[in-house]
Amino acid sequence: MDGDVTLGYLLLFSALLGYSLLGIFHKVADRPQCRPNVIAAMLLFWGGVLTTTQVLVSNPGGLNVPPRVALIGAAGGVFAGLALLTFQWALRFGKISTSWLILQLSVSVPILVSLVVYRERLNLGKVIGVGLVLGAILLLWWDKRTEREKPPGAADDATHATPLAKAKWLPLMIFAFLANGLAASSQKVLSETFPGRDFSWQFTVSLYWTGFLFTGAVSLLRNGLPNRQEASLGLIMAVASVVGNVMLVKAMGHGVSGSVAYPIANGGSLFIVVAAGVLLFKERLTPAGVCGVLLGLTAILVLMLT
Question: How far apart are CA 32 and CA 143, in angstroms?
Answer without folding.
Answer: 25
